[in-house]
Amino acid sequence: MNKPFLAAAVLALTAPFIAGTASAQFFAKAEDAIKYRQGAFQMIKAHFSALQPVIKGQVPYDKARVAAEVSVLDVISTLPWAAFGPGTEGGGALEVVWSDTNGFKAAQDKFLASLKPLTAAAQEGDLNKLRAAFVNTGASCKACHDNFRK
Ligand code: ASC
Question: Which atom of ligand 1 is nearest to the CA of 49?
Answer without folding.
Answer: 7
